[in-house]
Amino acid sequence: MESGKRSSLALLPLFLSFLFYFDFSKKLPSSDCSLLPHNHYWIASKYIVTPNGTVSGAVEIKEGRIISVVAEENWHVNSWFTTVVNYGESVVMPGFIDVHAHLDDPGRSEWEGFPSGTKAAAAGGVTTLVDMPLNSAPSTVSEETLKLKVQAAEGRVYVDVGFWGGLVPENAENASSLERLLNAGVLGLKSFMVPSGINDFPMTTASHIKEALPTLARYKRPLLVHAEVLLDLDGKMELEDGVENARSYSTYLKTRPASMEEAAINQLITLSKDTRAGGSAEGAHLHIVHLSDARTSLNLIKEAKQRGDSLTVETCPHYLAFAAEDIPDGDTRFKCAPPIRDAANKEKLWDALLDGDIDMLSSDHSPSVPEMKLLDEGDFLKAWGGISSLQFVLPATWTHGRKYGITFEQLASWWSEKPAKLAGLTTKGAIAVGNQADIVVWEPDMEFDLDNDYPVHIKHPSISAYMGSRLSGKVLETFIISAMSLLVVPLTFLETTTWHDI
Ligand SMILES: *[C@@H]1O[C@H](CO)[C@@H](O)[C@H](O)[C@H]1NC(C)=O
Ligand SMILES: *[C@@H]1O[C@H](CO)[C@@H](O)[C@H](O)[C@H]1NC(C)=O
Ligand SMILES: [Zn+2]
């Protein structure tokens, strides 16, 4: 586009902040964002990532919706009469949708919180996130506790937020309680096959899950599963008289071997067969969260998918960015469950992602207060697990992925399109006509150091495993249209969800 188009920019205070709002009807939690004073405008770039590929051209936005996507050669607007925001060679992509974030609000907002967590999301190009039902207090396991979530979030979020509900033994065995939770507008359920570490979020066995699947099938809502089970590790978990060093990451790794994931997934695929066409839970969908084991566990998932099970899987940037061998002694910022495994496993995760065997990515952003990470002691066995990453998922995925030749289209698929489908968000996840104009603009070749000078919005930067690293792929702007929407959706709206196109 000719540089003349840039002239209209001078009229707008656009480059002053990272975030634009133009929904005047809602109050902003603070002044770190700016309102774009237009309800009809164009975003132009040489690299607009659409489901039809990356095009040079412009996206037309009116009243918060994308109303056209036009290639440069067909784009004829008079820049004197039209507002054009021209990003030149910066990439314009659908905003990231993070289907796995723990905002810990209400009840543990000293760990994270709706304002801080959603500000970190906006700063990192994440325009929608789906909050996990645990680490807040109480956990979101009933209609009543969902109401507390919604009350805590109302007027305090900077991006769109939806909620997963918890599947726990109490509601798994009580269909009417589960129905009330689903009717109240959670986007789906999440359960743990190992103790979650949170008292009011007990684990579910395969038989609890089996019991819940027909209800989920009726509602066409997914069940997200933390797939690890406790094993009798033949005494391997016993640390011989403290000989094993708890400051060594390898000690922690031994306590959560890949066989724990494998055993859980083995149980799950005996259930997911019922989701096949004609099965007793047809219409239900199982989604395995944060897969770490790229060996046997991944093969089991691949085979189940090939047999027609309604099954998807995500992994997280920390499994793709870090390797167990490189984690310094005592650096508990890297503790999470399942654990980060060896470098060869990391390579296999990338292969699986590139081959489409892993469907999507999520942050599993899960901070705590710094004291619980025991950074001074560095005890991997006692420290709280959870990686704090929400603001950095775009540059982390890009920095590590570009070595494998990932494309902008793949990024958009893993971080927007497929997560939108999992969560049933039919007007999000792509730069396409009719969709909400949730957009991230970023610069692939811009490198930056994540140091104390970098504007970090995550509540506790000191516990983020990414601090101290150099990343490329800087987020320049995040456009959010229905800012502060809580995606608490009446279930009838979701009846048309189909899983097959994830
Ligand atoms: C099932 O849940 C409903 C609604 O939450 C509750 O009223 C009922 O007492 C529960 N039934 C049992 C058997 O616990
Ligand atoms: C992709 O291109 C086809 C053919 O030009 C068009 O019909 C379709 O609407 C486009 N899809 C999107 C999402 O832009
Ligand atoms: Zn999690």
From TrEMBL:
Keywords: Hydrolase, Metal-binding, Signal, Zinc. Pfam families: ALN_composite, Amidohydro_1. Pathway: Nitrogen metabolism; (S)-allantoin degradation; allantoate from (S)-allantoin: step 1/1. One of its GO terms (cellular component) is cytoplasm. Its EC number is 3.5.2.5. InterPro entries: Allantoinase, ALN_composite, Amidohydro-rel, DHOase/Allantoinase_Hydrolase, Metal-dep_hydrolase_composite, Metal_Hydrolase. It catalyses: (S)-allantoin + H2O = allantoate + H(+). Homotetramer. It comes from Solanum bulbocastanum (Wild potato). This is allantoinase. Residues 91-451 form the Amidohydrolase-related domain. Its cofactor is Zn(2+). Belongs to the metallo-dependent hydrolases superfamily. Allantoinase family. GO terms for molecular function: allantoinase activity; cobalt ion binding; zinc ion binding. Catalyzes the conversion of allantoin (5-ureidohydantoin) to allantoate by hydrolytic cleavage of the five-member hydantoin ring. Catalyzes the first step of the ureide allantoin degradation followed by the sequential activity of AAH, UGLYAH and UAH which allows a complete purine breakdown without the intermediate generation of urea. Residues 1-25 form the signal peptide. One of its GO terms (biological process) is purine nucleobase catabolic process. Residues 36-89 form the Allantoinase composite domain. It is an enzyme of class 3 (hydrolase).
